[in-house]
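During the second year of the project, the team shifted from modelling isolated chains to modelling whole assemblies. The rationale, set out in the original proposal, was that interfaces cannot be judged from single-chain predictions alone. As a representative example for this report, we include one of the complexes processed in the last quarter. Its constituent sequences, exactly as entered into the pipeline, are reproduced here:
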Amino acid sequence: MRRLINQRPGRGERLALGMLPFIVLLALYVFASQLRLAENPDDKLLPSLSSMAERVVDYAVTEDVRSGRRLLWSDTWASVKRLGSALAISSVAALVLALAIGVVPRIRALLSPLLATVSMIPPLAVLPILFIVLGLEEAAKIALIVIGVLPAMARSLALHVAELPEEQIVKAQTLGASTWQVALRVVLPQTLPRLIDALRISMGAAWLFLIAAEAIASTEGLGYRIFLVRRFLAMDVILPYVAWITLLAVMADVLLRRLRAAAFLWAEPPR
Amino acid sequence: MATVSVRNVWKTYGPQVVLENLRLEVADREFVTIVGASGCGKSTFLRLLMGTEQPTRGSILIDGKPIRPEPDPARGIVYQRCFLYPHLTALGNLVLGLELKRSRLLGRLFGAKRRAAMQEAERMLEEVGLATARDRYPSQLSGGMQQRLAIAQAVICQPKILLLDEPFSALDPGITADMHVLVKRLWQEHGMTIFMVSHDIRESFELGTRILTFDKVRNDPQAPEAYGASITYDIPLKRVRATRAPVAA
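Output from the structure prediction step:
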């Protein structure tokens, strides 16, 4: 018998092992739900899979009586739009900041203490300020997400730029590069794959701030819906929404990973 | 054309004296090799020549003019470990130098100019025997191939002075012999003045036209930092240089 550290599962076994916890959790849920429903058919805490499926149909296929929209899709679109614009703004800003801070020592001296301080501000504490200054519309929600993820992204990218070997920068200068060219041709391309990593890591925080903003002041969106139906203890809506948000996040992560592998072949670890 | 004058150069870090009173006149197209114990300031001297560090006292002149206090295209460098650009292919690493020089705004060439630069880079790749590795990334090349590429990258920009910081010490002995041939050929073809730091004395004698040893002349055991190294031997190696500019009759 080989030691455990030397026993490697094959492809099929890996897949089965990976699926196992999901199946166990699902089975546990179904079992617990049946127990409770047998005792009290009106129980709302652990709705049956079939009742959840009915609600999903209600939200995804049937048009809402008041707004005439299919709520699941209009909520998703509203949330994804906010998340997407916030992450796009954060990415561009983080990249520009990191390049400037990493390449130009004077800008580093000027901005990095500020960045270090700003990244310590709890974003939710400034949310009221954002609502007061920017109003209750989209701008405040997008701003919250940006404030929540930008400082950390910019710092991690700036750190990466600082880790580039000094020799690479010296050599670029011996090849005739100006400061601008060093940033553009040497530093920027090597920072892009890290930007994708930073985006993947920021995704969790971005969702957190999105849902927080939607819960407090919104008229549509995935977070808004969850907090709205909470008033009726509608677990049969909340649970599918949570599952849907999770699925969206997982898909975004996979997409980003694929994009990195396809676009930055040189940055992939050798196999 | 590149003569180098080192005039009474001192380099100190606080109380520690690293180099003291270096004086040196180097003729055009000389191949100067520098040997010495580790920590005796060979690499510091190279950094002074590069311009990444400045002398504490004294001055360094190239062709009679003070060197710029930062790296510039007149001086190329090859390090012991290869610092190639990992995001560019072998060809891309060579084209980069040409692009940086010819496109100040974007650092990129397009159309006919780009094709011309690529042809130039391909010729250079062939010259160093890497034509087949054209589209590979540095991480996919062996150590010897990477170092060939690093040398080609420095040479393609036509520097007047080439600095080599122990360029072969990380390579297998078998490969080193090939590299000697390569460096010698490039030196003769491109007419550069070369400074090479090495810890291999045989290599230094074989390649150089002039060999310098760095060592401390004075030593105070109570205060080892009090005295720095200077040039203890300066040996011209009498050898006819193949492409020495013919003396006007």
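Chain A touches chain B through 24 residues (CB under 8 Å). Chain A has one domain: 71-262.
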